[in-house]
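Researcher: Here's the sequence for the chain we discussed earlier.
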Amino acid sequence: MAPATATTAASASATDRLPAETEVLIVGAGPTGLTLACDLARRGVDALVVEQAEALFPGSRGKGLQPRTQEVFEDLGVLGAIRAAGAPYPLMLSWEGGERLGTWDLIERGTPGPFAPYADAWMIPQWRTQEILHARLLELGGAVAFGTALTGFEQDPGHVRATLTDASGRAREVTARYLVAADGGRSTVRRAAGITMHGEQVDPRPALVADLRIDGLDRDNWHIWPKAPAGAMLLCPLPGTEDFQLFARYENENEVPDTTAEGVRRAVAERSHLPTSAVREVRWASDFRPRAALAERFRQGRVLLAGDAAHIHSPAGGQGLNTSVQDAYNLGWKLGRILRDGADEALLDSYEAERYPIAAAVIEISTGLHRTERSGTDDRQARRGRDTDQMNVGYRGGPLTVEARDGLAEDALRAGDRAPDAPYAGSDGASHRLFDLYRGPHLSVLAVDCELPVLPAGVAALSLTGGLARQAYGPGLFVIRPDGYVGLATHDPADLPGYLARLGAPRP
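Model: Thanks. This is the structure I predict for it:
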């Protein structure tokens, strides 16, 4: 496999082919924008994705998918392709010069169980994740307009009027109900909206990241030279490809990494026993200085920020892409409920209220991991595990969270938590999963050890007695949001109609 170099016909980026109106305009075809577009497409929401580049991003940058993101991708119908194109994280192999010092594990390995089917991070280069999401979007009837930049917009209480310009300078105005900035850390949309981003430099030392093909290393390990005189270097084999991802750190804060093919070759030779000739091909290269930054708000009227446009992280801990995907997953169902199911627009207020504190916490985790790696001589101090798998991320205390049960044990599931999976036997005697019930754009109600009340049309429902469902949830009635979190937990059926109506469901 190889990264995409061209992605769509030239006519797709011609401004004269763009629609005059759309419900949601998404700027940026990275993981955030593509995830949101897929989610909206399956909800029947008309969305236009525009991407200034002529093709999908070609690099491996965000290569780790956390267990929670894998659950998101299962719901969106792409996990099979993701798993087929990726692999588990390899063991780290430390080198000193040309001598192997032994292997160790970067992550705390877990065991899949009935409540959490994916236990560990899954490695797949970012360009491949984007190809899979793009293919899914096309399958759902969506498309991306490549070579098309947002060059300005205005908004009023009901609409956003955006100016889109192609590479030839041709411009067209497109009207949308909502505009979503998924255009990265240097977001044009965020700046045009006047939203400030506050942050800090995590590490003043520059770094070089590249995808390359190299001789002389096995593909069974993630190779690391932590004490290289010129600065630490890592070479990670990328599954499903012939490539390795290079990460090389420079100790001189004033140095500018050379991203040319020869510069990458020199970086490898300066930090390892490998000669420059071992690097057969450099396929992509970039330089960066790790930063952490957070937008002061995630919404300005009908303009919403998601992904790196809203928050920037150190790559330590593999949090950036995952948090971005989950921004889109949180936002998608809310836009869908407003635009297709009649939910009040106030539902969008919950987006920032829920995602802002999570972004802030992720920045704290990733910055801490980065500084641990920087100051320690043993990278095993920075193992990833429960702090980074995002399975404990949730919305307790959030504006859409209602916990109406009393006397819960300290470790009990509560409203706002991720809704666990669990197997159960159906009326046909076959084995099913709760994730089968939750999969799709709908709301779900789970009744455990109690009767199901009458529910509105379009709400999936299931009643179970005992078993693993009781072990995971406890007794009660649980409204499961379309993004797989417990919204309402109660014993009283009378609590359901009002709560469901807040999310756009008709009263029964």
